[in-house]
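Hey, I'm writing a tutorial for new members on how sequence and structure tokens pair up, and I'd like a real worked example in the thread rather than a made-up one. If someone can provide the structure for the chain below, I'll link this post from the tutorial.
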Amino acid sequence: MSRWPHVVALALVVATSAVQADPLFDRGEALAALAADLVDAENAGDAAAAVDLFAPDDDIAYYEGANEHIGRDAALAALTARLAGLPKGSLVATAPRILVEAATGWIVVEWEWGGDAGRHITRARRDGGVWSLDALDFDGGSADAPIGAFDASTAADAIDGPVRMMEKAAAAFAEGDQGAIESLIVKQQDDFIFISDDGVRWEGTDGILIAVAAAAFGQVPEGISREAMTLFVGAGLGRAIAFQEIDGTRVSLQLERRDGWRIVKASLSAPLDVLPVSPAGGVITTWANLRRATR
């Protein structure tokens, strides 16, 4: 695994009669920043700094194994004890995988540390425009079964599908595997879009041919990996964007759930900042509902 950049920028907009900023952008960016701050605090052995990322009320919760620690004092004591047994400065974490809802976010970060491995599952809430954590499962067991009152299974399931597609795509593009790339692209090939490293937009089968050629002839920046790719998933939207910054270049993949998760756009230059709008306007309605839910 490798550490991921602390500054995450992903502009998502919805194409309507006038382009509007996607409300998921600020949410995803804020959640990614929280994840980075949590990893930094833990890696420094600073449990107090980690707990400061939680909401100011005393309903926060920390989970470790099957144990539930409710309240700031209990969470701080338990996390302090856990970090004390781990070597400072040697935490290795993936980029975050984030499920973004209207006023709730779920962050999954896989980690290796001191010979152990697991995955943080963190829940955050938005209050008065400010995001803060309210629950942390250090080892990730809540993805399989509830720990006390904390059940992350639904969120984990929503993230896992896009993660698996992202992993396959990262490996295929890194290896220049033509067959693998073609197998991951949306079956409705006319829908596929590829933006080459010189910013040219290619559509349909032309896009597939150019994407495959770019991977085969080394135009994909070296270092693309599933560990370093950040993933934003729009809850209930059937869409996700995975991206990685490599030497100032952003590699981006837009995924959609059709017959399973598939790649519908890939870019080696311009950020994928426009989400398609269905003919029925379903996506516009969804974004509008998200905006209303947080006013």
